[in-house]
């Protein structure tokens, strides 16, 4: 039998939630690809994201939404989207990695982990990001 562990409630009043959500019409990414092609991909996505999702419009759209959600969670509108990478684990779970100024901002806020949830339909892509730090 496993031991029951209880949350130290004295820490709850010190927790700060960092939340971001974004939704985008998939057609906006399609339009940008048609208009700007590879330069759009290179401006927004990491080399790994381009290699894995270049020909998968819904995957590109949901990763764009994830990058925007991270920017909102970190309250840092000037972040470079290429400093945020969203890949997929073998089981399909999204893996979020931060680099450069995004990593620096996360560290400044004391965020140890950011979780991301992704979903998309034919028309829309949505991402939700959540992280915690202590005050």
Task: Give structural notes.
The chain is an alpha+beta fold. Helices cover 39% and strands 29% of the residues. It has five helices and five strands. The chain has helices spanning 26-36, 38-44, 47-53, 57-73, 100-109; strands at 15-25, 84-88, 94-98, 114-120, 124-134. The strands form two sheets. It has a three-stranded antiparallel beta sheet. A two-stranded antiparallel sheet has the order 2-3. A hairpin with a 3-residue loop joins strand 4 (114-120) and strand 5 (124-134). Helix 1 crosses helix 4. The longest helix is centred in the middle third of the chain and has 17 residues, at 57-73. It is globular, with a radius of gyration of 17 Å. The model has no long low-confidence stretch (mean pLDDT 92).
- The end-to-end span amounts to 35 Å
Instruction: Average the pLDDT over all residues and give the rounded result.
Output: 92
What percent of the residues sit in helical stretches (DSSP H or I)? Answer: 25-40%
Q: Write the H/E string, N to C.
A: EHHHHEEHEE
Shape: globular
Q: Specify the structural class.
A: alpha+beta
**Multimerization state:** single chain
Provide the low-confidence segments as ranges.
none
Total beta strands: 5
Describe the sheet with the most strands.
3 strands, antiparallel
Describe this protein with a few key phrases.
alpha+beta, 3-stranded antiparallel beta sheet, two-stranded antiparallel ribbon, globular, 135 residues
